[in-house]
């Protein structure tokens, strides 16, 4: 079922296969030019067809934000860790196209994602953020997440160690 929320001209709806070129482009940019994803080689475009159908088939949301009919970003979550005891805790990711940043789009996507998680009866939403990603940490603080741990040197990319900031949002 498609969900649409219109907030300040931003429409949030479920992702469809037609949106995946943008999702793929955001992924490639993040892999090649940032430490938002701790991976050196981007997935090929075809990976995302399977990714979307599996994720939606498992009942997880993949939301896109549209501005004037143009896809400006996406957000999604899945279970935080694999075992059954973690089923009420989810971990999300959120990406916004560079030319649309600073306009509240990630915030709008995240509010929709939190609404969906709460409606599903999830208990906690987690974010695992590279400690140098101060913009994302500020975004999550503004959304009510608190830092619960900073785990030093658990990642490596671009020939340097990366620390992981774990942030937590209790859901209603
Ligand atoms: C992080 C990201 C999702 C933010 O998207 P956005 O749509 O620009 O965020 P918003 O406009 O909703 O920002 C809301 C608040 O977050 C904070 N924020 C967002 N980006 C920031 C930045 N670069 N520097 C400092 N604070 C920032 C601010 O407090 C901002 O509120 P303000 O505009 O009133 O100051 C976007 O920059 C992005 O896609 N980055 C690359 C991928 C990434 O890092 N994803 C997160 C992985 S954990």
What report would you give on this structure?
It is built from 4 helices and 8 strands, in the order ββααβββαβαββ. The radius of gyration is 15 Å and the shape is globular. Helix content is 30%, strand content 36%. α1 crosses α2 (45-57). The chain is α+β, with helices and mostly antiparallel strands and 172 residues long. The chain has a domain at 5-123: Aminopeptidase (3-Layer(aba) Sandwich). Residues 30, 36, 93-96, 101-107, 127, 129, 133, 135-136, 138-139, 142 line the site of coenzyme A.
Features:
alpha+beta, 8-stranded mixed sheet, 8 strands, 30% helix, binds coenzyme A
In short:
The chain has 172 residues and is of the alpha+beta class. The protein is built from four helices and eight strands; from the N terminus they run ββααβββαβαββ.
List the helices and strands and how they pair.
Blueprint: E1 5-7, E2 10-14, H1 20-33, H2 45-57, E3 62-67, E4 70-79, E5 89-96, H3 105-119, E6 124-130, H4 134-142, E7 146-157, E8 160-170
Parallel strand pairs: 5-6
Antiparallel strand pairs: 1-2, 2-3, 3-4, 4-5, 6-8, 7-8
Bound molecules: coenzyme A.
């Amino acid at each position: 079922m498609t969900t649409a929320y219109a907030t300040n001209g931003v429409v949030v709806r479920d992702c469809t296969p037609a949106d995946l070129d943008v999702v793929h482009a955001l992924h490639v940019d993040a892999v090649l030019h940032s430490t938002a994803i701790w991976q050196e080689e981007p997935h090929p475009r075809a990976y995302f067809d399977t990714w979307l159908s599996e994720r939606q088939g498992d009942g997880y949301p993949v939301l896109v934000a549209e501005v004037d009919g143009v896809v400006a970003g996406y957000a999604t979550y899945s279970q935080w860790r694999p075992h059954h005891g973690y089923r009420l805790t989810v971990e999300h990711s959120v990406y916004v196209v560079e030319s649309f940043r600073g306009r509240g789009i990630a915030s709008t996507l995240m509010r929709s994602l939190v609404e969906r998680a709460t409606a599903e009866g999830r208990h906690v939403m987690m974010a695992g953020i590279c400690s140098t990603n101060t913009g994302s940490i500020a975004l999550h603080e503004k959304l009510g997440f608190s830092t619960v741990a900073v785990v030093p040197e658990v990642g490596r990319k671009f020939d340097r160690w990366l620390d992981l900031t774990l942030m937590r949002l209790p859901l209603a």
